[in-house]
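Case study 2.
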Amino acid sequence: MSTTDELRTQVLEALGAIAPDADLATLSDDASLRDELDLDSMDMQGLVVGLYEATGIDVPERDYGKLDTVADTVAYLAAHRPGGQ
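Prediction:
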């Protein structure tokens, strides 16, 4: 199982793949991903695919809104990984 730090790293790597010009080192864990990184719906789909490839956790489209920040995304993944929280 991944630790919270590992999940955060996986989230940042997935974000880096869809927003390669973003300075993720300065991205606050509580900043809105859509606002700070100017992500659109296609970018969100790319993020979800990257997260699935990294973690094996499927995020249904109805849950995309729960991935608003890095912290939200890490918490979502932690709650939905095999074995639960």
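Residues 19 and 27 are 12 Å apart (CA to CA).
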